[in-house]
Amino acid sequence: MASIFKSKALAFMSPYKLSLAQKLFLAPYLSVKGFIDPNDGSHIAGLGEATGEFAAKCIYDKLKATKDGQALLKERPLISKDKIRFDKLKILENGTLGIFFTFN
Q1: N or C: which end of the chain has fewer CB within 10 A?
Q2: Can you tell me whether residue 70 is helix, strand or coil?
Q3: Nearest Cα residue to 33 out of 6, 69, 65
Q4: Would you give per-residue pLDDT tens digits along the chain (104 residues)?
Q5: What is the CA radius of gyration of the chain?
Q6: Phi then psi for 10, rounded to 5 degrees?
Q7: Confidence (pLDDT) at 99
Q8: How far apart are CA 23 and CA 77, in angstroms?
Q9: What is the reported pTM?
Q10: Cβ contacts of residue 101 below 8 Å, gap of 6+?
Q11: What distance in Å separates the CA atoms of residue 6 and residue 46, rounded to the nearest whole number?
């Protein structure tokens, strides 16, 4: 089985589901290695594997807590560039997700 990780040191991670203890151990290690060598994407990919489930659950819980979030979870709309009203996004205040899209 081919590993998704370039680094042989991280290849052991690909076929397994990580335990909480493994995630707690690996997250700081992978973060530091990612800062030391940002061109080696295997450390960033590993960090995503170690922390992504927790982040996704937090986002899901926050969405479930609001009416707008519940509507998004129910409708599951697809966002495409031709559906975005950039003229409306430009009037949003700084710090919002919408204003971020006007800079890209």
Answers
A1: C
A2: helix
A3: 6
A4: 344 445 555 555 556 677 888 888 989 999 999 899 888 888 888 888 888 888 888 999 999 999 999 999 999 888 788 888 888 888 888 878 777 777 65
A5: 18
A6: -105, -5
A7: 76
A8: 32
A9: 0.51
A10: 84, 86, 89
A11: 10
Taking the C-alpha atoms of residue 57 and residue 48, their distance in angstroms, rounded to an integer, is: 14
The DSSP call for residue 39 is T
Residues 6+ apart with CB under 8 A from 43: 7, 10, 30, 33, 34, 37
φ, ψ for residue 40 (rounded to 5)?
-90, 100
CA dist., res. 17 & res. 5, Å (int): 15
Question: Nearest-CA neighbor of 50 among 68, 80, 30, 69?
Answer: 30
Q: How far apart are CA 18 and CA 65, in angstroms?
A: 28
Burial of residue 91 (CB within 10 Å: 0-12, 13-18, 19+) is exposed
CB atoms within 10 A of CB 13: 21
